[in-house]
């Protein structure tokens, strides 16, 4: 164990005062390290070196001492903030821990490899060097040797990289051999991504194998470099017949963005380093007041650039809230300042006549422009001639005739530019100061703003573009290099596009050019990828015949786009919005949608399983005579046969008519048979290919039966609810032995992976083991969480998972019998557990309709899969681990793509939730709130312009509304409180209590004075001029839970405002909002319960949506029984809204559609008159993933509606009549197009056409049809 002094040093490293701030102290410390090498302190545990030979014999000890001194002297990090991290990429944002503590834990453990991930600029290299320094400071002779390896510096690090690094440190061959035999190393491998590696260094270097290097490896990599599946690149692998990665030898951590406190700590260390124009408080004020800047500087490298740029940014007279700063602007400013400083340095230096003359010539030509051009050309050369490796070695006699001499040769101009550029040099090795700087210059080689008249990088951009835009260079990198796998370069270019519309025009021209020029396919794929990533919308776009093979269109919006005849081979269409798009006669070979079709059964799906060979998939559905077992082909997901019908079940087994349900299913190891357990207590063995029953194995009891095949395939274990468990012979059908135990109901049975034990989960909270050969009872574990309702073994048998009520899943160490990590994701019953085949993940299904994926190592939540609408009853991983199937009570089997982080089915919910939307004279305002409830923001979706986020002190937000003038926001939450914010200043008003229960909806009165809040059993009106004045309106029954309150304000055209309130008591009540007095009560009749209501524009008529799928029209003045009802809705009418002219009506339904209704043009009746009127449904909008909750019309311009739905998305739709969008409307056909949508985030193929498409996989054809694509040509 580490000593107390060691622990104190760890504490200092994690959060104490960093010695880097005190430079004299640093020097004294380094001097002490040089003179007192045998330090008595131990930061990290000693890893004993058995049989260590005296290294002094070969001089290795002295060389190690020299290496320690040199490495400590080379460490230069004046500012260091201990980073926080989370367990995995998918772990929750709030589950952070100190990274240094996690590394300490790794070094204390038996794990061999720790992967540290982080975004570009997150501080991976900084942390690695700091870790190396701490290890060297506390290194003693018998400790593990810290060895920092910058992977790009090593040629072929996949082969003997330790030897190569030690040779670079001037160790002899004898010393290296001796250390290999007797010493242990802590490898700190930095820059896996920069070295362009794809191999597993632990495997290729044969680390920890017999007679090989004994090590622990810490390796860092940029998150963007890796795909969704990367475990095999890093996890140790056993060099025997078991080739799967050992997850218990691997650990990972993801560096988290800085918190606001860490940003402040960084600034506090940064300010004293040299004279600054501001103090810490000034920098923090600027960071907090400039919109979105604080979020950006949570990246440490961007924070550094920002602090250097801020004084120059704020020199203008702009209001801080009007300043816009992007990442690429920070790089622009940093590079300009870097070159300016170096130009002044050269001017002030003592130069020869020739040097002075050359410098003045360069200044005359434009020193900064020359410097930028130099770095652009170097970046291009690195990618094109050096395979992207950022480290370039230049030895003059070896490289003077190569491309390297153009950048590192002795020529005077080259030397000046090299020494003035943001490069670093270590001996003969050169590189940019940061990997992102290389990518920045490469992106600038594609589009350089200086060639488009942009001189002030922080000046407000008009974004109008120039009239005459020159095309991009056809010999440039956009045309010659595939950028799809360079996300950082794509991000820089996206930011350029948002700043300069010329670039967007150039990219669109490239896409258009691909229609006629086959040589532009690579450029077009790059161009449209950049456009989509930057948020460019392609609604209704003419993209016929474009050639964009391999493009990444994931998340793109292509509503009604024309893509006929396009080359879309290998295109990524994950989460794309393709509603009514035309893909006829397109080339779709290799296209990716990120998900698979779901399987829809006739009844609830009780159980499911993959065959061990991965070729078949079975489902058990329904109960009684409606129950069947279906077998599917995994390659096509076509149903192969129906193995069993419940009707035959009665013929086989019983003479009465009792319904019998199949409870569980399991495949034999050879995939030829499967076994089922039924609630009549019978176990049946089936032939999978023929669907023929082979054996009946009947027990003594009836009840739920769980089954499991032994690994040898010759036995089956079954457990009946009522205490009976048996092992059966699959050859004879006879009982081998019974496991009699009456301590409680048996919930689950499993075989251990090696077949030696049978384990039972019981309702008394025990987990009981039996010898699988003899039937003797073994260990009994007591589960702390009670009933063990489901069990699962890890593939290697070293862990067992037990599921319990309350959503708890307990992991157990099977060797010690001790409980380990507890997995918690919900409070519902855990219905199923399944380990992934590599043992790294565990999936859990539950009663709350959600499937959750956890990391086995640390219990971190990896992902949540939403899609089921009822309880999930069973789970199954495919044998290759790429798919996870979940069986639901909603009659659906969903197939989740766990391999792909881009899979729409497994897509993570968006951070922002659409709370409200408002049409304004200038366009639109969207109110969205973070899923975590930490803040809300108001913004324009078409321009992207937003107002500062409104921070929330507590996570109680549940509903929100924008005031009619767009100046205020009112929020309500689950605690029944209201709070209003000023959107201009961000100032919050008081929190007002009074609603008494969670607030489901909020409405403003047209004048903005009153706010109405509703919940299922209450409506309350609030006077914003006197917030303390609040009163409940409506005479709702106390405790009447089966209720639904809906309310609406009358329009401004009425002499006095009225509030209409109704609920499932079918009373319509009109109130005065000023007094709360009841003005009128109308009985709506017995036939339908009201769900929603809306006033007509003149206030005379009320449209009421009902739960019997209709809309009723009431004249509240005459109280006439409605003479017209709009029928034909596919579900409850959850929201209704009139257009401002009164001639249009929109209704949102529980069937996830919106219907657009139009008043008859022939009758010309005044709206709201007592005459007979007629409405017709002119179109139905589809493409909503969940129910539609709200609709409003644009009162200012085009005929538009905005919808919000429970899928967290806000959509804006434009309605055209014969091509006209006038708000009055004319005769003719009606079409509707999406204008914009937020948080769409899932694949939409409603109305998509793809007849004649070439190369489309049959599985994806089925997927598109499920998503609403047309089955045949029009």
Describe the structure.
This is NACHT domain-containing protein. WD repeats lie at residues 655-696, 739-780, 781-822, 823-864, 865-906, 1092-1124, 1126-1167. Residues 23-32 have a biased composition (Basic and acidic residues). Residues 113-271 form the NACHT domain. InterPro entries: 5peptide_repeat (IPR001646), NACHT_NTPase (IPR007111), P-loop_NTPase (IPR027417), WD40/YVTN_repeat-like_dom_sf (IPR015943), WD40_PAC1 (IPR020472), WD40_repeat_CS (IPR019775), WD40_repeat_dom_sf (IPR036322), WD40_rpt (IPR001680). It contains 26 helices and 65 strands. It is globular and about 100 Å long. The protein starts with a helix and ends in an 8-residue tail after the last helix. The longest helix has 22 residues, at 327-348. With 1274 residues, it is of the alpha+beta class.
């Amino acid at each position: 164990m580490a000593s107390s002094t060691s622990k104190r040093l760890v504490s200092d490293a994690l959060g104490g005062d960093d010695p880097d701030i005190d430079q004299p102290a640093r020097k004294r410390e380094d001097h002490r390290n040089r003179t007192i090498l045998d330090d008595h302190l131990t930061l990290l545990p000693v890893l004993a070196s058995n049989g260590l030979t005296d290294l002094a014999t070969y001089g290795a000890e002295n060389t190690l001492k020299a290496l320690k001194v040199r490495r400590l002297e080379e460490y230069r990090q004046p500012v260091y903030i201990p980073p926080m991290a989370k367990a995995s990429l998918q772990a929750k944002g709030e589950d952070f821990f100190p990274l240094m503590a996690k590394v300490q834990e790794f070094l204390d453990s038996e794990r061999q490899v720790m992967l540290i991930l982080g975004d570009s600029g997150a501080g991976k290299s900084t942390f690695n060097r700091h870790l190396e320094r701490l290890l060297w400071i506390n290194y003693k002779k018998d400790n593990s040797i810290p060895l920092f390896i910058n992977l790009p510096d090593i040629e072929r690090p996949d082969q003997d990289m330790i030897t190569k690094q030690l040779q670079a440190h001037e160790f002899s061959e004898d010393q290296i051999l001796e250390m290999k035999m007797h010493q242990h190393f802590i490898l700190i491998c930095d820059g896996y991504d920069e070295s362009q590696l794809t191999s597993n260094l632990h495997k290729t270097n044969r680390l920890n194998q017999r007679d090989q290097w004994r090590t622990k490896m810490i390796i860092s990599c940029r998150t963007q470099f890796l795909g969704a599946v990367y475990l095999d690149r890093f996890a140790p692998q056993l060099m025997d017949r078991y080739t799967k990665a050992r997850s218990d030898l691997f650990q990972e951590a993801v560096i988290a963005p800085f918190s606001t406190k860490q940003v402040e700590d960084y600034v506090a260390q940064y300010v004293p380093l040299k004279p600054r124009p501001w103090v810490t408080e000034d920098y923090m004020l600027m960071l907090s007041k400039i919109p979105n800047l604080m979020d950006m500087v949570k990246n440490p490298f961007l924070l550094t650039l920002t602090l250097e740029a801020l004084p120059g940014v704020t020199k203008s007279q702009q209001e801080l809230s009007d300043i816009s700063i992007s990442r690429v602007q920070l790089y622009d400013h940093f590079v300009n300042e870097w070159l300016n400083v170096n130009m002044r340095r050269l001017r002030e230096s003592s130069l020869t006549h020739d040097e002075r003359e050359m410098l003045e010539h360069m200044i005359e030509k434009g020193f900064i422009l020359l410097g930028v051009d130099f770095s652009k050309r170097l970046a291009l050369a690195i990618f094109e001639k050096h395979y992207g490796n950022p480290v370039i070695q230049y030895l003059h006699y070896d490289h003077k005739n190569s491309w390297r001499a153009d950048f590192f040769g002795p020529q005077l101009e080259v030397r000046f530019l090299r020494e003035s550029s943001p490069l670093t040099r270590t001996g003969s090795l050169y590189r940019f100061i940061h990997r992102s700087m290389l990518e920045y210059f490469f992106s600038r080689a594609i589009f350089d703003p200086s060639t488009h008249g942009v001189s002030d990088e922080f000046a407000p951009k008009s974004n109008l573009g120039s009239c005459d835009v020159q095309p991009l260079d056809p010999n440039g990198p956009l045309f010659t290099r595939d950028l799809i796998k360079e996300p950082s370069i794509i991000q820089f270019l996206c930011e350029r596009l948002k700043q300069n519309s010329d670039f967007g025009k150039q990219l669109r021209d490239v896409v258009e050019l691909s229609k006629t020029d086959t040589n532009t396919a690579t450029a077009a794929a790059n161009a449209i990828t950049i456009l989509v990533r930057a948020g460019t919308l392609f609604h209704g776009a003419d993209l016929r015949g474009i050639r964009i093979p391999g493009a990444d269109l994931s998340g793109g919006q292509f509503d009604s786009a024309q893509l006929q005849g396009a080359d879309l081979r290998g295109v990524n269409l994950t989460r794309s919005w393709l509603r009514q798009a035309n893909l006829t006669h397109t080339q779709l070979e290799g296209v990716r949608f990120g998900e698979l079709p779901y399987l829809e059964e006739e009844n609830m799906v009780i159980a499911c399983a993959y065959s061990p060979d991965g070729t078949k998939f079975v489902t058990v559905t329904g109960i009684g005579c409606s129950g069947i077992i279906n077998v599917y082909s995994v390659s096509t997901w076509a149903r192969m046969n129906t193995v069993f019908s419940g009707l035959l079940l009665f013929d086989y087994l019983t003479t009465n008519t009792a319904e019998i349900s199949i409870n569980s299913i399991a495949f034999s190891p050879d995939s030829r048979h499967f076994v089922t357990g039924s609630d009549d207590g019978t176990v049946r063995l089936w032939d999978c290919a023929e669907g023929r029953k082979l054996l009946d194995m009947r027990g003594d009891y009836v009840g739920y039966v769980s089954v499991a095949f032994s690994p040898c395939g010759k036995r089956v274990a079954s457990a009946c609810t009522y205490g009976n468990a048996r092992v059966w012979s699959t050859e004879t059908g006879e009982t081998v032995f019974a496991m009699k135990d009456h301590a409680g109901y048996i919930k689950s049975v499993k075989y251990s992976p090696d077949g030696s034990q049978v384990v039972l989960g019981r309702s008394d909270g025990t987990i009981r083991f039996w010898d699988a050969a003899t039937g003797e009872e073994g260990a009994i574990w007591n589960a702390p969480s009670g009933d063990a309702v489901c069990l699962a073994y890890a593939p290697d048998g070293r862990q067992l998972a037990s599921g319990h009520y309350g959503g708890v899943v307990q992991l157990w160490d099977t060797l010690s019998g001790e409980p380990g990590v507890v997995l918690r994701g919900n409070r519902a019953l855990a219905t199923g557990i399944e380990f992934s085949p590599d043992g790294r993940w565990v999936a859990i299904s539950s009663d709350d309709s959600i499937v959750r994926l956890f990391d086995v190592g640390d219990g971190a939540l990896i992902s949540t899969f939403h899609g089921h609408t009822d309880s999930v009853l069973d789970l199954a991983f495919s044998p290759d681990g790429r798919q996870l199937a979940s069986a639901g009570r909603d009659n659906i089997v969903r197939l989740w793509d766990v391999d792909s982080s881009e899979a729409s089915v497994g897509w993570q919910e968006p951070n922002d939730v659409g709370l409200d939307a408002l049409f304004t004279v200038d366009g639109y305002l969207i109110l969205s709130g973070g899923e975590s409830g930490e803040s809300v923001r108001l913004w324009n979706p078409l321009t992207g312009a937003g107002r500062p986020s409104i921070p929330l002190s507590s996570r109680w937000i549940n509903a929100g509304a924008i005031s009619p003038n767009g100046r205020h926001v009112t929020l309500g939450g689950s605690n029944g409180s209201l709070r209003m914010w000023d959107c201009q200043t961000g100032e919050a008003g008081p929190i007002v209590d009074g609603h008494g229960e969670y607030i489901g909806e909020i409405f403003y009165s047209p004048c903005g004075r009153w706010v109405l809040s509703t919940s299922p059993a209450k409506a309350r009106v609030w006077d914003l001029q006197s917030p303390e004045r609040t009163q409940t309106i409506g005479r709702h029954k106390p405790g009447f839970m089966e209720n639904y309150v809906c309310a609406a304000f009358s329009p401004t055209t009425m002499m006095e405002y009225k509030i209409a309130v109704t609920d499932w008591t079918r009373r319509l009540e009109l109130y005065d909002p000023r007094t709360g007095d009841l003005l009128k009560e109308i009985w709506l009749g017995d036939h339908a319960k009201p769900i929603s209501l809306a006033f007509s524009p003149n206030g005379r008529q009320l449209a009421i949506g009902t739960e019997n799928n209709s809309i009723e029209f009431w004249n509240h003045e005459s109280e006439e029984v409605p003479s017209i009802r709009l029928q034909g809705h596919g579900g409850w009418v959850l929201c209704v809204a009139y257009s401002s002219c009164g001639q249009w009506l929109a209704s949102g339904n529980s069937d996830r559609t919106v219907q657009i209704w139009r008043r008859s043009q022939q009758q010309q009746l005044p709206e709201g008159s007592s005459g007979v009127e007629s409405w017709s449904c002119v179109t139905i909008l589809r493409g909503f993933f969940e129910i539609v909750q709200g609709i409003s019309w644009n009162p200012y311009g085009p005929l538009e509606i905005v919808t919000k739905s429970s899928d967290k998305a806000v959509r804006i739709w434009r309605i055209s009549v014969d091509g006209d969008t006038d708000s009055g409307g004319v005769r003719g056909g009606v079409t509707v197009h999406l204008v914009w949508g937020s948080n769409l985030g899932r694949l939409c193929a409603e109305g998509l056409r793809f007849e004649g498409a070439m190369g489309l996989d049959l599985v994806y054809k089925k997927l598109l049809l499920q998503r609403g694509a047309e089955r045949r040509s029009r």
